[in-house]
Amino acid sequence: MKKLANIKSPVPSDIDVSQSLKLWSIRRIAQSIGIQDNELELHGDSRGRIKLDVLERLKNKPNGKYVLVTGINPTPFGEGKTTTSVGLSQSIGAHLNKKVFTCLRCPSRGPTFGIKGGAAGGGYSQVIPMETFNLDVPDIDAVAIANNLLSAAIDTRMFHERTQTNKGLFKRLCPADKKGERFFTKAMISRLTKLGIYKTNPNDLTKEEIADFVRLDLDPDTISWRRVVDVNDRFLRGITVGNGPKERGQIRSTGFDIAVASECMVILALSNSLHDMRERMGKIVVGMSKKGVPITAEDIGAAGAMTVLMKESLKPSLMQTLERTPVLVHAGPFANIAHGNSSIIADKIALKLVGEDGYVVTEAGFGADCGAEKFFNIKCRSSGLVPNCSVIVATARALKHHGGASLKECKETNVGALKRGVVNLVKHVENMKKFGVPVVVALNRFHTDTDEECDVILNAAKRAGAFDAVISDHFSKGGLGAVNLAKSVERACKQKSNFKFLYDLDQPIKKKIGIIAREIYGADGVDYLNNTNEKIEEYEKNGFGNLPICVAKTQYSFSHDAKLLGRPSGFRIPVQDIRASVGAGFVFPILGAISTMPGLPTRPAYYNVDVDEKGNILGLF
Amino acid sequence: MKKLANIKSPVPSDIDVSQSLKLWSIRRIAQSIGIQDNELELHGDSRGRIKLDVLERLKNKPNGKYVLVTGINPTPFGEGKTTTSVGLSQSIGAHLNKKVFTCLRCPSRGPTFGIKGGAAGGGYSQVIPMETFNLDVPDIDAVAIANNLLSAAIDTRMFHERTQTNKGLFKRLCPADKKGERFFTKAMISRLTKLGIYKTNPNDLTKEEIADFVRLDLDPDTISWRRVVDVNDRFLRGITVGNGPKERGQIRSTGFDIAVASECMVILALSNSLHDMRERMGKIVVGMSKKGVPITAEDIGAAGAMTVLMKESLKPSLMQTLERTPVLVHAGPFANIAHGNSSIIADKIALKLVGEDGYVVTEAGFGADCGAEKFFNIKCRSSGLVPNCSVIVATARALKHHGGASLKECKETNVGALKRGVVNLVKHVENMKKFGVPVVVALNRFHTDTDEECDVILNAAKRAGAFDAVISDHFSKGGLGAVNLAKSVERACKQKSNFKFLYDLDQPIKKKIGIIAREIYGADGVDYLNNTNEKIEEYEKNGFGNLPICVAKTQYSFSHDAKLLGRPSGFRIPVQDIRASVGAGFVFPILGAISTMPGLPTRPAYYNVDVDEKGNILGLF
To answer: Does B190 share its domain with B306?
Structure first.
């Protein structure tokens, strides 16, 4: 850890700040947090991977304090959750001299080259180097290829089933080896078990058993598995595949999602071990057979290979902040159709490494109605970890917008709008308390915010039951600007955590959705539209009823409607569609049109990106 | 370097051999060949990247000997070029105690999980660990995302041009910055220069100039740039994009290629520096404007970002053989529509590192009619390097097939078929001599080959003018089995190289194609079918006439027809289509249906791939 020297005002551009400091070697960062040399794999000069062996070595060591950073419902500008996570960590590490880890998600290159730019924090609270953080994201490449191997396997399997007899399929699926013997692979044994066939010698199967075994009989209209790419390619949202002459007319409508929307990414984020990941891969449901049986990646025979393709990615990547505190970058699932949280494995490793007196700061995407609710009910349920404190990041800008100011107006002083809009923050504070976790509100202050405005926010937060509410100025000052926040978090973590889930898994799907809708969103109830009633019945019949719920909805409102700002009431949420990510392990009701593939603007960020004569990267932000 | 101990007979499976040895640390490998610590970037425990700085440090050092490994026209089994490259290197390094480097291509995961399996060599001549070699191939991921960023940019640009006025486009392409000023990016200046507009202030453009500047006016029917994925996904060969409702009916037929078929991969392989790569990226032609002007990646504004996405991949990856000689794995372009050679940068680094008394063994794909011809005429032309020796790998099996034995029969002794088929080897030897490079024939011996069969091959090769022809048994014995081959190569490299290109670049396209057809393939002439005459005229008009030629054809025959085995004569080659990879820097005539996207068999290799309880990878081969 090393405090920042020479802080400039006004704050230079993010890339100028990022490139102004000399990196510590990753080995030095690792040593500073107690990672042994044999537990560190270097990947270039500015990133390392931590081997999972560290969990075995430290299994009897107590965990550190577990701090979630979440936020109010944001504006399209973003309200600085990542920047706050980094600033808070810099403060805990370099200013309070406690052990600390920041756990962040891998950024997709889609937004980096599209509209949003990078995701490494900002100002004097950044992960460095930003080039590595934003561009060197092998977890996403691994997810994409595992996802797409399964896609290729699905269409090709349908093709082979369509063009071959049972006998031909069986002969090819279980060919004789060099010694003339046939055998079933692990995936085949799983499929046979699912069919109630407990034979291990291919020669013993009856004609009927062979037919059941070789024909997955996928109904093309039910296939929900889509291909992915880590680029904002809107023209792949809806495509037709199989137009080539050799595919003999097997044409199908499907599409691509951005890679971070892949269920494989969720699996990476929610797995507790390699074994756990392998099991989840096998459970992925790609569609239904014509008889209505869910067909899995295990049935297809691809789950083992998918796991192998993602095996290296299970090791979180070690990086550093501007004040040389350690960061783990790992996974990066979408925050709507997925749970939008950084990985369980990174958090677990970090908690052991910081130890009893240390802190792990982990971030959840979107507002607390999505990110934090899913953190508690999905991620903590899968990990068994208990959070000690929740930090809600708020900005005066966004709260003014919630109080009726337009996006342009809300940069100006407007105490009236702020007083109306602060109810958004109040509701989030109340929500966090339902999980039994102390809440600290971090007001991410902009230099234009007046003292009066700040007081409105801090007072409202405290009245709503926040353990504390403080101004944080980490963007301009780094860890130094977040010392008050860090001290509040420290005190909050000394409170007894009464952490509890909002719902039990064994309740029916609709009951669970209803609890989230009423308790978290403040809705009057839930309407099930289209064929969602039938789908829920089908999921419960197929044994998916006991999964947690991951609501896919807008981040801009507590409700399903981005325009319902503040603390809306008197609304019902419409479940337009519902889907299941069985491998990831949740059911996701969809409350409106959710884009799983962003587009590019007329002037995308890539226009600025280039290399200079010396090979330096230009134009990232 | 370390000789193998405990060689077993029969040879265990590739993965068992690969996993039976303890790796040397990559740092130790690097040190053994003179790479300094600050020139090495570790990437995990078994791979490192070499920084291009090493070229600057060693720029005044003489190059080592440059040895190309190529082959006869193979059977579908493959005849062991990679295994021979590795075995020869193990022998030079661990048995002759000379400095040596092996330069290989990155393997695509398509074939690894499809039919072919891995590509790390075999038996006792392998690159280890094979898991890393076959699965950890970030160069391909970088190529794929750079390629696909351009694809997304093309369709989205057409969309924005279709839906916006000139004024709207210009306002968005050159928005005012925070200070209210507008500026052109580097890519925009390039486009303006192409249009003959030499203004640097956006405010100075006339209405007409704005129209020319903002409208690329791509003709959708001319777009040749396809998307890529590193999976054998045949259902992506022909697709329709833009079916989503928000794309407003902008539908187009296109398709995906396997990632290694991307022009970005060729650029990676043929670039001499980062600057060179940036220039080539900008020159990529994606299609034609409606007025017939080639539209480039520079026009689209994506070439800088594509370069940034591939910047790290420009550093070759260091690995090791079973006898701990150093290997560079880098790039991996397709061997038909591209030139199928490992990278220039890897070869250059290796040649400097081994120095005057050392050897660099580099491999070219397909038979010598494709791989070696393109190595000499395309790769050596781009690099300026001069080869010292060419090794042609031959097997009795393949030569029997060339003599009329079926693929099944050719495993059995058949001197008659061999005597007929050996003409294939003879023609390849004669061809190599046309380039003025001494040829050593390496008979990759199988244990079933009789002495008589071996003699037929060796004698024919010598009579044809090979500098030497020797039996090599590196599969069963590692470097020890290739000592005779290594000694022959050593002697051949002491010969004076009279290297020359087969054609001059300033000859017309048809003249160059004709020279290759007659001299290398033994054809009587060339027929230009479909609209290839017009396309050639157009290319020459657009200034692409002085590029070298990269013929896309079958690897199984000297001709365009896979069934014309041996040394065919009395045939003419049909140019069915012709295309230009202007960024890569060649024109490629297509002699028949060339698949740029392989399929998966009914029982793909992925079925066997899994992890065991301890996390080891199973089922790779």
So the answer is: yes
pLDDT of residue A551: 97
The answer to the question of residue A219 being in a domain is: yes
The distance in angstroms from the start CA to the end CA of chain B is: 25
- Residue identified by tokens 């794995």 is B329
B4-20 per-position pLDDT tens digit: 988 999 999 888 898 88
CATH code of A443's domain:
3.40.50.300
**Contact map slice: B 177-206 vs A, CB within 8 A:** 185-188
CB contact at 8 A, B7 and B484 = no
| Closest CA of chain A from B537, distance in Å | 29
Read off the tokens for B483. Answer: 């000592």
- A354 touches A99 (CB < 8 A): yes
- Is A388 in the same domain as A515? no
Same-domain check for residues A492 and A518: no
Contact check, Cβ <8 Å, B278/A611: yes
**Number of CB atoms found within 10 A of residue B494's CB:** 10
State which H helix or E strand residue B455 sits in.
helix B451-463
DSSP codes of every residue in A15-78: HHHHHTSPPPPHHHHHHHTT--GGGEEEBSSS-EEE-THHHHHTTTSPP-EEEEEEESSPPTT-
- A227 CB neighbours in chain B (<8 A) are 229, 233, 236
Contact check, Cβ <8 Å, B235/A246: no
Question: Quick one: closest CA in A to B111, which residue?
Answer: A149
| Alpha carbon of residue A40 to chain centroid | 24
Residue A248 is which amino acid? R
Q: Domain residues for A390?
A: 63-73+354-496
Instruction: Using the Cα atoms of residue A230, residue A232, residue A235 and residue A239 in order, give the sign of their dihedral.
Output: positive
**Rounded CA gap, B64 and B356, in Å?**
4
CATH number where A549 lies: 3.10.410.10
Query: What's residue B86's pLDDT?
Result: 98
Contact B309 A145 (CB under 8 A): no
What DSSP designation does B218 have? B
Residue B366 lies in a domain: yes
Domains held by chain A: number: 3
**Ranges of chain A with pLDDT below 70:** none
Does the distance separating the beta carbons of B308 and A617 come in below 8 Å? yes
Cα Rg for chain B, rounded, in angstroms? 25
Residues of chain B with pLDDT under 50: none
SS3 A496: coil
CB atoms within 10 A of CB A162: 10
The B residues from 229 to 288 touching A (CB cutoff 8 Å) are 229-247, 250, 252-253, 255, 274-275, 278
Do residues A605 and A117 make contact, with C-beta atoms less than 8 angstroms apart?
Answer: yes
Question: Which residue from A42, A148, A185 is facing B608, i.e. has the nearest CB?
Answer: A185
pLDDT in tens, A152-203: 999 999 999 999 999 999 999 999 888 889 999 999 999 999 999 999 999 9
| Same domain assignment for residues B361 and B488 | yes
What are the φ/ψ torsions at residue B239 (nearest 5 degrees)? -135, 165
Residue A496 is predicted with a pLDDT of 86
Q: In the A/B pair of chains, how many CB contacts fall below 8 A?
A: 265
> What's the DSSP call for residue A91?
I
Residues 94-133 of A with CB under 8 A from B: 109, 113
**pLDDT for position A180:** 86
A155: chain B residues, CB-CB within 8 Å: 233-235
Gap between the Cα atoms of B512 and A433, Å rounded: 77
Question: Is A136 part of any domain?
Answer: no
In angstroms, the separation between the Cα of residue B501 and the nearest Cα of chain A is: 32
Name residue B227's beta-bridge partners.
B256
Asked whether residue A383 is domain-assigned, the answer is yes
Task: Say if residue A524 is in the same domain as residue A465.
Answer: no
Q: Is A604 on the interface with B (CB under 8 A)?
A: yes
